[in-house]
Amino acid sequence: MIGTIVIAAALQAATPAVAPVADWRAVPVAGGSWIWRAVPGGSEAVFTDVRGAQFALRCTVASRRVSLTRTGAISGAPLVVRTSSGDRTLPWIANLPATDPLLDAIAFSRGKFAVEVAGAPRLVVPAWPEAARAVEDCRK
Prior knowledge:
22% of the residues lie in helices and 41% in strands. It is α+β, with helices and mostly antiparallel strands.
């Protein structure tokens, strides 16, 4: 019995701890779905899950700008968007011209993209057409 305990302890010590996944591309897509809807002055695409809205792209047609908002963010914390073609750090209140290349990178990311901000867990969402539709509404 003592030999068994020693062997088990040795195996446990030799087993490395599981490290958290650092590469967002290895993280599964969050459960939830996108919703596109017309809103006064434009449209928006909102990713929601069982907790409610988690991320939104909102088009304001008059200014031809798209705002990006992450629920649960710490006020003033930078917003990091990661796509298959690159990463970009934005101000907490991200308000981009509709022609910004990041919006195309989101729309054409290989299946998913990630949104990270202090105060909220990393969000990896599917690159569904709703986000691209809100951007295109601002480009008309």
